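Journal club prep — side note

Before the paper discussion, L.F. wants everyone to see what a predicted structure for a comparable chain looks like in token form. Sequence:
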Amino acid sequence: MSRMNHFDKSGKAVMVDVTDKDITHRIATATGTIYVSCEVYDAIAKGTAAKGDVLGCARIAGIMATKKTSDIIPMCHPLMLTKASIEFSLNEEESSVSATCTTKVCGKTGVEMEALLGVSAALLTIYDMCKALDRSMKIGDIRLLKKDGGKSGLYVAKEQVSEDI
């Protein structure tokens, strides 16, 4: 049975004390998708969006977000990431772009939130750069695909979409 450990005995919010945890290699991979119009999809795929390289900019935004997670999510520990990457896959049939973020650290706490925030920032950047073409874009399906390291060990999402993670 898991317990909520972001609260002290009196119910006040606290950052988890990781002082006595072992330093281990930790990795997390998250994904999410933005669903766009055919016009937006074509602009992204062909690199013709008025604001420039949509995926290049979104990749940088996602990586930058991973490094700022503790500034945005209140109870996250500041981490010295050893890796943060964003990859995209375009699906013409769905008129969508999926982002996958992988984060790594050697530390006392996991990097799931960093991966989830990286995906979110990348997808929001796509929205921002394409909103002049269509404001009805939909962001969704944001989820953790895999995490490993630390006391809880390996987690792999049941509905994992790719064996390449």
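L.F.'s comment for the group: Strands lie at 24-35, 83-91, 96-107, 138-148, 155-156. Keep this in mind when we get to the figures.
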